[in-house]
Amino acid sequence: MEIKVLGPGCATCKRLYQEAERAVAQSGIDATVTKVESIEEIASFGILRTPGLVIDGKVVASGRIPLAPEIVTMITTAAAEA
Amino acid sequence: MTTVPTASPSEAAPSAALRQAAALTAALAVWGLVYWRLASAADWLTASLLGLPVDESLGAAVSFFLYEVPKVLLLLTLVVFVVGVIRSFFTPERTRRVLAGRRETAGSILAALLGVVTPFCSCSAVPLFIGFVTTGVPLGVTFAFLVSAPMVNEVALALLFALFGWRIAALYAGTGLAVAIAAGVMIGRLRLEGWVEPWVYGVRPAGEHPADEGLRWTERMAAGREAVRDIVSRVWPYVVAGIAVGAGIHGYVPQDFMASFMGRDVWWSVPLAVGIGIPLYSNAAGIVPIVQALLGKGAALGTVLAFMMAVVALSLPEIVILRKVLTVRLIAVFVAVVGAGILLVGYLFNLVL
């Protein structure tokens, strides 16, 4: 599973990155978490607000910081659908 | 927001909603109580506990600080919460859908109005800009939104309302919208699409994302709480810093000193205020206490409003961020048009009021 955190590097996207890492650890699912800071790549996902959270190429959240428990739910849902 | 399926939503929702309503009412009661006793508490702390007479410089500054910090933070929390709930009804995705393909003038008016209620933070400026212009929102209309969103925001309006009354808040909102609309129409007329960085128009617009439609009230309350968590935690250092500066001005600057170079009789006070304001960055929460202190020392209303707008609407960090998608020439036009609008507002009010 590939999780991407989209954000140009301000405090909110850093926070989302931490929550995503925490969620991956809690969920126990094998997933990589990468930070995407390049504006071009962020734009290609079509989100209008940063930070953005992408799981396996699909945008699951934008413009807010879901906390770890919510991200765990998103991860498990995505794993079940895969 | 994703809706998590629960076992029996029809049974779970009412009791959860009731508990939330009860918690909300209790919180509001505590809020009201603390707010009401703040002024006297601040004076008592300064005079009795710290032994500083409140009518002298240091005492005045300290009591101002002790009163204003919790007051502004309390107001901020309340306003951000309420607006967070309101904003769950408006998303940028919905705004974009409304604005796509509109003609310039009507579109700019609509965009400016929507900028007030659509959530916006400076780092979102770029994805938002790209998302708008690649899906058929005209350039001028996008700019109208980009000007009104940071400038006429709920935090600014709420604080202005609380500290100066509804007239000044309405004035700020009205003129802010006018500047945004004028900027949008002007930039649209100038046909500057060629001055956007070329790669922007090459971005493939991705499909629609699930918008936050049909949220339940518990989810809207959660949106409010989330907004408080995110915004207040980001904004409070600016508030404290702004109040500290305001406290210094309040305690140490002689009465009517500001009238000498920020007053209405000095014709260059408005350009000076705008010139100082543009490179400064603060969000609304931090600048309003300073505005209050300046007004208290004799600065003219038009000058101070212009200063506030310049600080909030045109910030160096946002311009640096926008450099990724706008050529320097377009940025210059943007700053010039908005700056001119703000100057006009400042002069107008010094003349009229």
Describe this structure in words.
The complex is a heterodimer of chains A (82) and B (353). With 82 residues, chain A is an alpha+beta fold. Chain A has a single domain (2-81), classed as Glutaredoxin (3-Layer(aba) Sandwich). Chain A has helices at residues 11-27, 39-44, 68-81, and strands spanning 2-6, 32-36, 52-55, 58-62. The longest helix of chain A is centred in the N-terminal third of the chain and has 17 residues, at 11-27. The radius of gyration of chain A is 11 Å and the shape is globular. The model of chain A has no long low-confidence stretch (mean pLDDT 85). Chain B has 353 residues and is an all-alpha fold. Chain B is built from 15 helices and no strands. The model of chain B is unreliable at 6-11 (pLDDT under 50). Chain B has helices at 9-49, 57-87, 92-99, 104-117, 125-133, 139-151, 154-164, 166-189, 217-252, 257-262, 269-277, 284-296, 301-313, 316-322, 328-352. Chain A binds chain B through residues 7-8, 10-13, 39-40, 42-50, 52, 59-65, 70, 73-74, 77, and chain B through 1-2, 4, 91-93, 96, 119-124, 126-128, 130-132, 199-200, 203-207, 209, 226, 230, 234, 321, 324-325.
| Cα-based radius of gyration of chain A, to the nearest Å | 11 Å
CATH superfamily of chain A: Glutaredoxin
Number of DSSP-assigned strands of chain A: 4
Proportion in helices of chain B: over 70%
Q: CATH fold name of chain A, please?
A: Glutaredoxin
| Beta-strand content estimate of chain B | under 5%
- The helix/strand order of chain B is HHHHHHHHHHHHHHH
What oligomeric assembly is this protein in? heterodimer
CATH class of chain A: Alpha Beta
- Topology order of chain A in helix (H) and strand (E) letters: EHEHEEH
Poorly predicted spans of chain B = 6-11
| Biggest β-sheet strands, sense, barrel of chain B | none
Q: Which structural class should the secondary elements of chain A be placed in?
A: alpha+beta
